[in-house]
Write a structure and sequence with these properties.
With about 350 residues, the chain is an alpha+beta fold. The chain has twelve helices and seven strands. Helix content is about 55%, strand content about 10%. The model is unreliable at about 1-10 and about 10-20 (pLDDT under 50).
Length: about 350
Amino acid sequence: MSAAVTEEARPATPPPAVRDPAERRARASQSFWSAVVGVPAIFSVLRLGVEAGGELQTTLLLVANVGTVNLLAGFLTTAARLLSTGLVATFALGAVLRVSVERMPATVRRPLLARWVDVTPAWFAVASFLLALITWQLLYLPLLVPAFVAAFQLTPARLHERRIPRLLILAGLLVGYAWLLAPTLVDAARQREWLAVALLAAPPLLALWITGPLPGAVIRPLASITEAAVLATLVWAALPVISTPVLPLTVTTVESAPGVTEDIRGHVVTTDDVSMVLLQDRGGVRYVPTDQVRAQVLCPGEEELPRHRLRIHDFHVDDSLLEGLGRRVRPVHRIDAACRAVG
């Protein structure tokens, strides 16, 4: 009898709580914006530590002299390409996964990228593609075509409801794309730059079949693979961004004694009436009296040197639209002999 009373008095185990859709949307929104804001801040701090050579005192010197505005400007000019790449990949893959999951039972857990797409305003997605448009190298710019089609689910059927006009529109778009890039494709084939040929020719064809939906059997494993792949790609691409200097690279000519000069290659940290502080390219900090400085030239970094001999209508494929327009306003000057000699 006592066992029966005890059994009746024992409270029933409450059913597992079911998360409200609004709560899940709020959690996804919080995680998305935390990543967008937190990743640039972390990268900025890491860049100072890497540029200081891992030395604490040198890092503190850079922190004290590199202002927040300069650090933000340096990050935007060098890492905007990485940030826009992550956002574009998130929106493209998330939209494909979202339209695929919508055809599955409601009990299926939505992938993280699909949830991020749900909580992202359309204007932010468009702004991300515009940022990629002006910061990506021209060689990789055609990849924005399938990414944009996937992110906004622009299927061929949305071009026109009738088949013949739809085919004519597609043909016109492909002809215009071919007219724009035909000379570059010919030059790439002559130079045996097959990777460049694939990057320029394949994206428009890929855009025709990238919108989805995907088969239900591959959604869950593909979601995990794509999330890990996006993270791994960003980490791999972040390494050169973290190691890119935030200070200008110069060669400073110093006259330490009458008739005795020395060229110092490094980054200018700060300058005042007493001394100029240089972070030497080969490590270490050097304080040079200001009255001993005789000349100073600005040198390009290795990442600024072109790697291909291809152009798209007078724009070099290694340049972004922003860089190409800038070079038209201020043409690239010849590299100073001091940069070659010291480098």
